[in-house]
Amino acid sequence: MRHLSMVRDSLYGPAETIQPEDEPMAAHIIPHFQNDAGHDVIEIGVTEFMCVGANPPFDHPHVYLDMGDEGEKVCGYCSTLYRYNPALKAEQSLPAGCLYIERAA
Q1: What is the overall mean pLDDT for the chain?
Q2: What is the band of 72 on the pLDDT scale with cuts at 50, 70, 90?
Q3: Does residue 52 belong to any structural domain of this protein?
């Protein structure tokens, strides 16, 4: 399974990941997922991620979730069940369109 390690620049800084040893040392943002459509289950290609609930202004606190070895995790805020799917890339989801991308104001 692809595990991401969270690194914080500061208490309120962006969550970043450390790449595996065989990849170049470059920081990447942990993927954020949203559930505007109210899906019961969302399959994603990572085991560590952030859930934002619905898109702002209807979001909940952006929470870090780690599936561990279980391969699935329920968000304690919105009750969305996230399930790991190794066939998906980090930014993909089934159903499609659940990746949250923050828009500039």
Answers
A1: 80
A2: very high
A3: yes
Q: What is the CATH number of the domain that holds 51?
A: 2.60.260.40
Burial code (b: 16+ CB inside 10 Å, e: under 16) for 28-39 equals eebbbbbbeeee
How many independent structural domains does the chain possess? 1
Tell me if 10 is assigned to some domain. Answer: no
Would 11 be classed as within a structural domain?
no
Q: Are 17 and 27 in contact (CB under 8 A)?
A: yes
Amino acid identity, position 7: V
Q: Which two tokens stand for residue 17?
A: 């990941």
Q: How many residues does the chain have?
A: 105
At residue 28, the pLDDT reads 53
Euclidean distance between the first and the last CA atom of the chain, given in angstroms as a whole number = 36
